[in-house]
Amino acid sequence: MAFDTALYLQFFIGLMAILNPFGLLPVFIGLTSHQSHSERARTNTVAIFTVVVSLVTVLLVGQLILQIFGISIASFRIAGGAMLVIIAMSMLKGQMSDVRRNPDEVSESVTRESIAVVPLAIPLIAGPGAMTTVIVYSAEHPDWQHLLGFSAGIVASAAICLGVFRAAAPLSDFLGQTGINIITRIMGLIMMAMAVEFMAQGLKDIFPVLAS
């Protein structure tokens, strides 16, 4: 079976639209406002690496894992939405949530990795929508050639995200702490709305009667 360039391009464009790194740039700035340039770069690298590993893993075994544990995509939406609510509440106060740091944490490097993996990589970048898209494409085109093509699309999308978030450092310097706080509160409100939408859609999928 030959590689289907049109299919992989369709997958790449769809995945980029869902990942939406430009829309997440203010969120990245807000979550990493307490970090230095080198720390922010490390957070960016760890987050994007996590995104690639997560989406490729979901591509290969995601559907099987969901079947084994009886987890639905709707459950992913609800769980992701609940996490976003917690983060958004802290952002509305101009603060970081507990995922940033607490006095019991011994190493700051652990804190940075925690921010990078949760919530930045999952669920903000590689959220339910991205995972759902990957699972659907892999289920419809399970041949290894297609899986390889989809994997290339994931890596290309992640590379673009890495470049976009790397530009956050000079933008953060331009805005200053006051500007960052304003963006953090605004994005907290938007994130809260996103969280409600995530959970509402998940509930509608589980209870279709709610959509009527």
UniProtKB/TrEMBL annotation:
Cellular localization per UniProt: Cell membrane
Annotated keywords: Cell membrane, Membrane, Transmembrane, Transmembrane helix
Topology versus the membrane: Multi-pass membrane protein
Main location: membrane
InterPro entries for the chain: Multi_antbiot-R_MarC
Pfam families given in the database record: MarC
TM helices/strands, residue ranges: 6-31, 43-62, 68-92, 113-138, 144-165, 186-203
GO CC terms of this entry: plasma membrane
Family listed: Belongs to the UPF0056 (MarC) family.
Name of the protein this chain belongs to: UPF0056 membrane protein
Organism this protein belongs to: Neiella marina
